[in-house]
Amino acid sequence: MKRKAYIYPVTNRIRTGIYNPYLDNFMSSTFQQISYLNSKYPSNTGILNLFRFLHRIDLLMLNWIEDLPDKKGGIFQTILFLILLKVIKLTHIKIVWTLHNKFSHSSDYLALKKRLFFQLLKSSDLIITHSAEGIRFAESLVPGISTRFFYFPHPVVPVKHEDEIEELKKYDILIWGTLAPYKAVDLFLEQLYEKKLETRFRILIAGKSVSDDFFNKIRKYENASITIKNQFIKNEELTVMIKQSKVVLFTYAGDSVLSSGALIDSVANGALVVGPDVGAFNEMGNEGIIKTYDNYEELFTILERIDQYYTLEAKEKIEKFIFSHQWKDFSKEFEKRLNNI
After folding, report:
1. Contact criterion met (CB below 8 Å) for 242 and 269
2. Fewest CB within 10 angstroms: 87, 133, 200, 207, which?
3. Based on the domain organization, do 209 and 94 belong to the same domain?
């Protein structure tokens, strides 16, 4: 018999123009084991929508819940949710939390977020992570907690290529995905100008900005060699952009990031990826699937030599990773862990 679950967050994504396919892929791959009662009922009240379903569910499945204080009415929601977590532990309901990041990308309400984070570590019956660093980080905070973790590299949605004709490389560097401060695109562009490299590479930056202010901040760096587009990137457009680019670059600053859907989507398209040496980037770098860097000096050295890295061996490693880390593979392993809680 299927388990009944409430999964967070299911919201009206059309309003923001920003869409993360992770939850849709998660639900699609696990629908045979789990019935997601709120999947067709987007919430306009945040986590408070949970009360509509609480009496009917076996599982509470949480994603990015550490950002709850940042939401509308977030302080009230967070305090109520902290109380609710303790109540849920007295019932038959099991809590499954996907740990996407070490902590929230925003430092606002930091004390409340830390309390929420620790409570989630203590209350969760199963914690999913797509980076082994997530387990090490949690273990440093709550020794012995690793037994409640389920690690599986971020699942891949394979991309079908109708032809293998080599595209003319229109760009040296592609930076894509939601444009947000924690991704540090502005800092990368600033470094380019400081080092007099602003025309050295043909760069395309494309993604929906989280705000007009942030987009205006990075748009000032646009020139004949740097193109910046404030728009959501559809899958078909992404495939074309990656084919036209020598490398996909991730410029994340800090170490809050554990895994990245954009990283996996890039690898799924067969891209040569360069990213910071943290979390899943570090792990995939150690496997030779992507290139990683520790600082800007190392990054610019890699970019200058990028043509040397996309070898036949590198392509084979990417293909092997795609073959063995798809959502169907994740679903099988997840079901085994779910049956043990």
Report:
1. yes
2. 87
3. no
